[in-house]
Amino acid sequence: MLELRAVAADIAGAPVLRGVSMHLPPGGLVALIGRNGAGKTTTLRAIMGLLPLRGGQVLLGGEEVTGVPAHHRARLGVGYAPEERRLFGPFSVRQNLLLPAEVLRLPAAETARRLEAVFTFLPELATLADRRAAGLSGGQGKMVALGRALIVGTRAVLLDEPFQGLAPALAQRYADALRGLHAAFPRVALLVTESNPQLLEPLVDTTYVIERGEILTADAATAA
Ligand SMILES: Nc1ncnc2c1ncn2[C@@H]1O[C@H](COP(=O)(O)OP(=O)(O)O)[C@@H](O)[C@H]1O
Ligand SMILES: [Mg+2]
């Protein structure tokens, strides 16, 4: 569904990604693990088209999207939950969930169907739907960011360190929600970054380890 071929990128003249190759099959749940500064966020931004590449290719559904602008990649069905959640405080949870789909002018019927599915599998969001985003806790905000990425991400969803800053009980709830959503959207490829491999290992089928902008290993775990 999503493929990176030898992606290279520089930030401020310094190489940050040095030939990153990854493959996310349809319905795959893939982890990208690496220390702070390893290049996880930059890899996701490269997939979204948010930074220029020095080399390599990004393919979506077998088609090259390397030169395709970011908003158009999102419209092709790639959802992205950045590390900072970027919710609109004065808007309700429901409005926050729907906003990217409206900005991208996605078909309203499909968006409504996906909102229903998100409410079914993240019932806490249905409960919070009419609350202002500004009043949410950190954990609730992460759930909204996850739901929002799923509404746009009909083909792939990228989650940047979603467990960071969550208390253990909330992290467990978030992991359960991911598992449920993965079952509910069986064709969507999920890519999740994390600095701590232990959190994701029980969930994922493939783990990539990134260090200083290079993929060290790609371990396909036996499916649990
Ligand atoms: N805004 C920036 N200015 C300069 N260097 C940056 C910037 N953002 C990232 N980098 C460099 O890119 C490297 C990878 O960053 P990043 O992809 O954010 O890592 P991660 O998400 O794994 O913590 C960092 O080590 C840093 O040197
Ligand atoms: Mg990061």
Task: Kindly describe this structure.
This protein is an alpha/beta fold and 224 residues long. It is built from eight helices and ten strands. The protein has helices spanning 40-48, 70-75, 93-103, 108-121, 123-128, 138-152, 168-184, 197-200; strands at 2-11, 14-24, 29-33, 55-60, 63-64, 78-81, 156-159, 189-194, 206-211, 214-220. It is globular. The structure holds adenosine-5'-diphosphate and magnesium ion (MG). Magnesium ion binds at residues 40-41, 83, 160-161.
CATH superfamily: P-loop containing nucleotide triphosphate hydrolases
**Coarse shape:** globular
What is the percent of helical residues? 25-40%
Number of continuous helical runs: 8
Spatially, the strands of the biggest sheet line up as: 6-7-8-3-9-10
Biggest sheet: strands, sense, closure? 6 strands, mixed
Q: What share of residues are in beta strands?
A: 25-35%
Q: Which residues form runs of ≥5 with pLDDT under 50?
A: none
GO molecular function: ATP binding; ATP hydrolysis activity; branched-chain amino acid transmembrane transporter activity
Family: Belongs to the ABC transporter superfamily.
InterPro entries: AAA+_ATPase (IPR003593), ABC_transporter-like_ATP-bd (IPR003439), BCAA_Transport_ATP-bd_LivF (IPR052156), P-loop_NTPase (IPR027417)
Protein name: ATP-binding cassette domain-containing protein
